[in-house]
Amino acid sequence: MKKKTDWIHIIACFIFYVSIITEYLVAYQKQCSMICMLLVALYLLFVLKVKEKRYKKYRLLIGVVSLLCSFLYFLKEQFILQILFTCFCFLLGIGERIIKYKDTKEVWKRPFLDEKIKYAVSVLLSVFGTVVFSLLMYYDFCPNKFVEQFAEKEENRFTYPSSEILEYDASTTIQTNRVYDEAYPNSAFDLIYDPKHCEEGVFIWIHGGNYLTGHKDDDNQSRNLMKNAVKEGFLVVSMDYAYMTDYRFPVPIVQLDALFRYLLDHQEELHLNMVNICLCGTGSGADIALNYTAAVTNKDYADLLDLHPCLNDIQAVVLVSALYDPSKAKETGLILTDYIACQQYRMYYNTLDLSFMPYKVLDYINSSFPPCIIADGNTGTYVKQAHTMDERLDQLDVYHESLLYDDASSQKELVQKSFDLQRSHFTSAVHGRLIDLLRMIKEE
Questions:
Q1: CATH number at residue 328
Q2: Which residues, other chains included, contact 342 with Cβ-Cβ below 8 Å and sequence gap of 6+?
Q3: How many domains are contained in the chain?
Q4: pLDDT for 272-311, tens place per residue?
Q5: What is the pLDDT, as a whole number, of residue 420?
Q6: Is residue 371 part of a domain?
Q7: Whole-angstrom distance, CA of residue 164 vs CA of residue 179
C-alpha cells in the first residue's frame, strides 16, 4: 500500500527553514515573509482537510495567528510585527516537527539502520535550526551584543600623547594630537600643512571604520588625499571621534561641531583660512560629514539633531561611501555585509527598527547644499543610495561630481569595494576630482 504524502509536515518544514532565513536575510525580509505567508496559507488548507481532531486546534490557532501577523506586517512594516510573524511561523514549523517525531518514535524499535539515521539527522537539524533561530532573535533585540562579540573594534580613550611638530615629508609638517574637546573621548586632531603654502583654506579629513575602528593617522590612501589637499595650499585637519561602543548617534556629529568651534577660536594661532572649508570622509566619516553639512544648510535637520552649528556655510564636501538613508542600511548587496551593517547601524542609532527613523538625511538635502563629490564602489556598499543622492542634487541644481559604478563585470574590474586601499581606477579618479573641486573653491 502506497504511503500517503504528509503535506502538512512537508509545508511546515519549509515554513520552519524560511522563518530562520527571514531572520538572517534582513535586506529581503519582506520577500521571505511573502513566501512564508503563502506557505502558511497552504498549511491551513491542508489542516482543514484533516479529519482527526488531535492537534487540530493547535495547528489552526498557530496558523491563523501567523497569517494575521503577516497581514499586519505587510500593512505596516514594524519591527515587532515582523518578529511576531517570524516567531509564530517558527513555532508552527517546530511544532509540526515535534508532532512528527512523536508519531514516528517507533522507528527505534525497528531493525532498519537507515531509518534510525534519518530520524536522528532530522532531530539534529531541528535542534540546530532552533539554536540558530534563537541566536538570531537574541541579536535582533540586542544588536550591541552582536557587535561586541563579532565586530572588529577599538577602545575609546580620553588621553593622547603630547602634541608634537614633526616632519611629514620633505615639504610638509604635521602637528599631532591637539585636543579639541574634553566632553567626549577620541577628541583629538592632527594638522598637516606646508608652512610656505597653507593659506587657501581648511580641509577636514574624517576617517572611516564603521564607528568602531580607524584613526586620524591611519597609513592608507587617505594620506595621498591629504597630500593632494596640502599641495593645493590647504591646511589639513585629520580628526578622531568617539567609537559607538560607548557613544551613539549623534555624538560624532556633535564632535565635528566642537572641532570647528576650536578651529574658529584658534584660527589666528594656527593661521587658518576658515573662509574656504572642505569636508571629506569615507564610510562612517562620510556619514558624519554628510549629516553635519545637512545640519549647517538646513535648520530643520539641525533642530532634529538638537544641534546649533557654529558654521554658517561649508564650501565643499567629498562623500565616499556615505549612508544617505539609515532605513536602508541593511541593503549593501552582500548577504553577510547586509546583516553586519544592519546590526551595527541599529546599535549606532540606538534603535531596533531602522525603518521608522526620523534621521533620513536625504530628505533634508536642499538647494543650499555645497558643491560636492559623491563616490562609491559596487561591492558591499551603498551605491544605490548614492545614485539617489545624485538624482536629488540634479533636481536641486546643486553642483556635484559623481563617481559611481554599477554591477557590470567590466566595472567590477575597476573597483571591487567602496574605497580600495590599493592603487585603482577608483582611487585615482577620486584624487583627480578632489583636486578639481579644491581649485574651484579657491577661485570663487
A1: 3.40.50.1820
A2: 26, 27, 143, 329, 330, 354
A3: 2
A4: 999 999 999 999 999 999 999 999 999 999 999 999 999 9
A5: 45
A6: yes
A7: 12
Task: Note whether residue 44 is domain-resident.
Answer: yes
Kindly list the strands in the beta sheet with 372-376, ordered across the sheet, starting from the edge strand earlier in the chain. Answer: 165-169, 172-179, 188-193, 234-239, 201-206, 277-282, 316-320, 372-376, 400-404
What is the maximum span of the chain, computed from C-alpha positions, in angstroms? 96
CA atoms within 13 A on the CB side of 102: 8
More confident residue, 413 or 276: 276
Q: Facing residues of 190 across strands? A: 238
Residue 278: CB atoms within 10 A of its CB come to 28
Distance CA 93, CA 95 (A): 5
| Same-domain check for residues 346 and 310 | yes
Q: Mark whether 124 and 216 lie in a shared domain.
A: no
For residue 111, give its domain range. Answer: 7-141
pLDDT at 408: 52
Over the range 49-66, which residues count as b (16 or more CB within 10 Å of their CB) and which as e?
eeeeeebeeebeebbebb
Answer yes or no: do 80 and 185 share one domain: no
pTM, to two decimals: 0.90
Q: Do 340 and 306 fall into the same domain?
A: yes
Mark whether 330 and 218 lie in a shared domain.
yes
CA distance 158 to 425: 39
Say which residue, 332 or 389, is predicted with more confidence: 389
- Overall average pLDDT of the 212-227 stretch: 79
Cβ-based neighbours of 175, under 8 Å, separated by 6 or more: 163, 164, 165, 166, 190, 191, 192
On whether the CB atoms of residues 298 and 368 are closer than 8 A, the answer is yes
Backbone region of residue 397 per phi and psi (left: phi > 0; alpha: psi in -120 to 50; beta: other values): left
Q: Which of 141, 175, 199 is the last residue of a domain?
A: 141
pLDDT of residue 418: 44
Same domain, 65 and 191: no
| Alpha carbon distance 241, 216 (integer Å) | 9
